[in-house]
Structures are given as structure tokens and as C-alpha cells.
Amino acid sequence: FQLWAPFGVFPTRLGEFAAGVLAGVLWSRDPARGARLLVHPMTLLISAAVWLGGTALSQYRSGWVVSDLAIAVGLTPLLLHLLARIQPVASPVIQGLAWLGSWSYYVFLTHVLVATAAGAAATALRAGPVVTIAVAVGMTVTGLVLSCRALRSLDVLVQQRVH
């Protein structure tokens, strides 16, 4: 669950999590049917309507919890539908995203710590804005790469010990 929930409301991401789990369970039970539904033209229209409705709700404080869920529920199938339509052309991009996805857990675990440390270090330099930003970005990328590789190595080591 998100550390910085919109308006400090803890369960704002609960609906997205539940929708993702439900979609995963349903997809695993009948992948062929899920694929047919995904590329169905009506999926595009319904997903766009839900996404736009969620975006409209985001303008109201009381609508944020429902808005986040509607945006996620509408935008995800919409993007998957689009990718299914352009798959032959977008295959290299999809493969790159799949590779990046294998690292997403490690980036999630380290990004706040690394970015905060890099920002503090860059601020301590008291250099000009361009130099400070360049140093912060460089340190963040380097820190993320090193910490993600370390976590992945630790994960592999633990998996080898368990099996």
C-alpha cells in the first residue's frame, strides 16, 4: 500500500490492489477468454469511459478513493487493448518493458531511499542549479542500479539456500 496516499486516506489503493488480484485470478482460470475480452471493441469504449469518469472524479476530494480505482480499472485494459492491437510493431518495446518489469520490485524497494540520499548530497554541494540537478540525477541512477543489483543478488542467494 502506498506510503503517501492521496489526502492521507489509507485505503485509497486497496481497490486497485483488489481489482488486480481479481483480474489475475480470472485471467489464470481462462486465459483464452481473457484475451478475447481484451481485444473486443467494446472493451476499448468501456475502459475509456471508466477512465474518463475516474479522471473527472479526481477533481473532488471526496471522489479520490473511487477515482483512483476507476482510473486504474479503466486505463489498464485500455492500454492492454492498445498494445494488443499494435503488438507486431511494438514487440521490441514490449520485450523491453517486460525486462524492466523484472526489476520493478527492486526499484520499488529502493527508489525513495536512494533519491532522498542523492538529493541531500546534491544539495550539500551548493553548486549551480544545473550541476546540482545533474549530480542528483546521476547519483540517483547509479544508486538505484547498484542497490537493485545488490537486492537481486541477495534474492538469488536466498532462493538458492531455500531450494
Q: Would you summarize the structure shown here?
A:
With 163 residues, the protein is an all-alpha fold. Helices cover 84% and strands 0% of the residues. It has six helices and no strands.
Protein architecture, described:
Helices cover 84% and strands 0% of the residues. The chain has helices at residues 14-29, 31-39, 41-57, 64-85, 87-125, 129-162. α1 packs parallel to α4 (64-85), α3 (41-57) packs antiparallel against α4 and α4 crosses α5. The mean pLDDT is 79.
Features:
single chain; mainly alpha; 84% helix
Order of helices and strands: HHHHHH
Q: How would you describe the oligomerization state of the chains in this entry?
A: single chain
Q: Could you report the average pLDDT, rounded to the nearest whole number?
A: 79
Number of helices: 6
Structural class: mainly alpha
Helicity, as a percent range: over 70%
Weakly predicted, low-confidence segments? none
Shape call: extended
Distance between the termini: 30 Å
Largest sheet: none
Q: What fraction of the residues are assigned to beta strands by DSSP?
A: under 5%
Write the layout of secondary structure elements.
Blueprint lengths: L13 H16 L1 H9 L1 H17 L6 H22 L1 H39 L3 H34 L1
Helix pairs in contact: 1-2, 1-4, 3-4, 4-5, 5-6
